[in-house]
Amino acid sequence: MTEAADGVFPAVCPLDCPDTCGLLLHKENGKIVKVTGDPNHPITKGAICNKVRNMAERIYHPERLLHPLRRTGPKGSGQFERITWEEALAEITERFRDLITSHGSESILPYSFYGNMGKLSVDGMDRRFFNALGASELEQTICNSAGNAGWVHTMGFYGGVSPEDIEHADLIIVWGGNIVSTNMHQVVLAEKARKKGTRIVVIDVHRNRTAQWADWFIPLYPGTDTALALGIMNVLFAEGLTDTAFMERYTVGHELLEEHVRGCTPEWAARITGVPAEDIVRLAHMYGRAHAAHIHVGNGLQHHDNGGMIVRTITCLPAVTGHWQRRGGGATKSNSGYARLNSVALERPDLRPNPQARHINMNRIGEALLDNEKPVMGLFVYCSNPLVVAPDTERVTRGFEREELFTVVHDLFMTDTAKYADIVLPAASSFESTDLFTSYWHHYIQLQEPVIERVGESKSNYELFSLLGQMMGFDNEAFSESEESMIRAALNHSVNPYLNGITLEALQEHRHVKLDMSPQERFLEMLPTPSGKIELYSETLERAGLPGLPTYVPLKEGYDGEHRPEPDALYPLMFISPPNHNFLNSTFANVPKHQELEKEPLLQIHPEDAAVRGIADGDKVTVWNERGASELRAKVADRMLPGTVISQGLWWDKNGQRQRVNVLTPDRLADMGKGAVFFSTAVNVKRQ
Ligand SMILES: Nc1nc2c(c(=O)[nH]1)N[C@H]1C(S)=C(S)[C@@H](COP(=O)(O)OP(=O)(O)OC[C@H]3O[C@@H](n4cnc5c(=O)[nH]c(N)nc54)[C@H](O)[C@@H]3O)O[C@H]1N2
Ligand SMILES: Nc1nc2c(c(=O)[nH]1)N[C@H]1C(S)=C(S)[C@@H](COP(=O)(O)OP(=O)(O)OC[C@H]3O[C@@H](n4cnc5c(=O)[nH]c(N)nc54)[C@H](O)[C@@H]3O)O[C@H]1N2
Ligand code: SF4
Ligand SMILES: [Mo]
């Protein structure tokens, strides 16, 4: 048995990161003592990030949950008693049965995201359970849904340039993505291109690590990227830097677009974005004259009120210039479309007695829990930490505090969320389980088999939900299906030609197997948009009440695109809270090693904004708005345009110190895809 043996074993990084690295776990006395990269992985090639190199500290953290627990104190107090698995499962199934009788099955809500990207864990047995239960359906909109919608309205298919092609790009624009921290192997590939003369441009609201690495950093005001992209298009059309033959063949609406951007001059775009007009012209020239420019469309762009439109507008650029036709040229937001598995076989929607069950948007979890009309009475949280990651924490907390709400949390740790649970269940780490992994960036499918024995009494999601399904008396075959059989079913999906030839046996033999990328050659011929072409003009959007052509719409709070807020305005600063380098969302925020690397949560503030408020570098500051307040340490630095403040990382509250940033963020929804708008947040700041 691998679990008991010592040696070096292959593994997959389970975290929500595009790189999905191949790992090697080094074991002594049955325990992982070292994590390194697998040099045989064709894309990640043995390099891994610091977070995961220190992963053993998390796996064997002294605070790891080892047994099921039942709450004994008030919600949020963190007071629990140890119970057995039998007691925990009996209590959950009994409470769920009672709730179904008294309030209907839709009074139960699962709340999950991708704390572990394993398909069996988060898109597998768990889904079967909540389907068979007839629970409310969670709309998983916290990460990429606005940008996804913006991309799909334009391109139809959720896929772009392959990692292997990036080194052939002669210009790389990283737009709203901090890839040095969040997609490190893309940096390695871009470096290869750079050695051949490729220039790297970063467009961001602050000088993040990626901007420091770039050849040219272009700072702009938050939420104004649509205006910048339109300004670039204005120059491209005006100066004949477009590819009319390409547009004729592969797009719809180019004449309308040309007309539409005539008024979007560089001067117009400069007033909105804060980017000087001459820089916009220079960027347009670089882009229009490049042979094969690649745009990395980052995730930061979509977390705005207008995030879908930002992504859509940027996505139009390589269609206007025809860069798509050349190797390395085009754009990439996500490549998850290539690796679509058989989700029907995995998730078994046929088990659902109520196909019309209500949907609840995860970004509005606070509101949903406080809704008395059709109340949520049972909540099951796993692979997510909403008390830290969901917008408008105060409202979410009020929801979780509701006395009559029965909450179960399955996690590896006593997170800020787990403290509100009635029952806490210990989760196994992915290295203790079998699972299947796809990447949303590279094209390798990977298999994880258990490498270590279970820590404490922990159970994997697969085990937990299959047990719960059996205890609820649901269809036995779906809940007793083996992991291997589920993997086979997931890979058996003839409608996705990219999966051709991928089998469990091949994965067992090679650990990672590449998708059959041959259909990608016909990528532009088979775009699944309504017109079958790249939609520069989208009738679908027009019908949905949005502009059919890419159009700049200001944010709903803070900067309105015309007037910088006066310093004495109630909330004059835009607050951006993107991920940091050493955590993965809120994962690792409780690991001393990772805390040490990050030191403490900071508020980066421009010297001008600091001076007006009498703030010096290193001062403790309060950041607040009408939703809540957070206490951070000021880092005064000229890293952004005045008017924007930045705090990286999703920290947990520590010893009563308020350091969660989502107390500040709104739970409004973006223009498309019902996405989260974390970054469209206006605040004020004062010295403590
Ligand atoms: N180290 C690390 N890696 C991670 C994660 C992590 O927490 N830590 N999280 C993972 C997950 S789930 C995701 S979704 C990805 C996210 O990773 P990325 O795709 O890099 O996206 P973000 O980090 O959310 O935002 C990227 C940048 O967008 C900028 N930004 C914000 N607003 C605007 C704007 O209006 N215009 C422009 N141009 N830029 C703007 C932010 O300043 C930030 O530098 O990373 C994954 N990888
Ligand atoms: N302000 C602000 N908020 C943000 C963001 C931002 O940039 N700024 N980013 C947003 C984005 S893009 C995302 S994707 C979300 C991410 O939010 P989440 O998906 O909630 O991610 P994590 O905070 O990493 O929490 C994952 C949890 O899953 C647990 N876990 C890991 N493996 C397993 C397992 O096998 N089983 C079970 N049951 N649990 C497991 C981990 O211990 C951890 O507590 O946050 C969003 N929130
Ligand atoms: S977090 Fe990303 S870069 Fe780090 S090991 Fe995992 S997949 Fe690789
Ligand atoms: Mo995400």
Topology:
Layout: E1 7-12, E2 22-28, E3 31-37, H1 50-53, H2 55-59, E4 69-71, E5 80-82, H3 85-103, E6 108-112, H4 119-122, H5 125-133, E7 137-139, H6 145-155, E8 171-175, H7 179-182, H8 184-195, E9 199-204, H9 209-213, E10 216-219, H10 225-238, H11 244-250, E11 251-252, H12 254-260, H13 266-273, H14 277-289, E12 293-297, H15 307-321, E13 330-332, H16 343-347, E14 359-361, H17 365-370, E15 378-382, H18 386-389, H19 393-401, E16 406-411, E17 423-426, E18 435-437, E19 444-448, H20 461-471, H21 476-480, H22 483-491, H23 504-510, E20 512-514, E21 534-535, H24 539-543, E22 573-576, H25 592-598, E23 602-605, H26 607-612, E24 620-624, E25 629-636, E26 644-646, E27 681-687
Parallel strand pairs: 6-15, 7-14, 8-9, 8-12, 9-10, 11-21, 12-13, 15-16, 16-17, 22-26, 23-25
Antiparallel strand pairs: 1-2, 2-3, 4-5, 4-17, 18-19, 19-20, 22-27, 24-25, 24-27
The site of one ligand MGD has 30 residues, from α7 and β9.
Pfam families: Molybdop_Fe4S4, Molybdopterin, Molydop_binding
Protein name: Molybdopterin-dependent oxidoreductase
Organism: Paenibacillus enshidis
Brief account:
By secondary structure, this protein is of the alpha/beta class.
What's the count of strands?
27
Outline the low-pLDDT stretches: none
**In CATH terms, what is the fold-level topology of the largest domain?**
Rossmann fold
Examine the secondary-structure arrangement and name the CATH architecture of the largest domain. 3-Layer(aba) Sandwich
Total number of distinct structural domains:
4
Alpha-carbon distance between the two ends: 57 Å
What sort of overall outline do the alpha carbons produce when their principal axes are compared?
globular
Describe the biggest sheet? 6 strands, mixed
Assign the CATH class of the largest domain: Alpha Beta
Radius of gyration: 25 Å
Number of helices: 26
Bound compounds, each kind once, are: ligand MGD, iron/sulfur cluster, molybdenum atom
Q: What is the strand arrangement across the widest sheet?
A: 5-4-17-16-15-6
Output the structural class. Answer: alpha/beta
Helix percentage range? 25-40%
Strand content: 15-25%
- Mean pLDDT level: 97
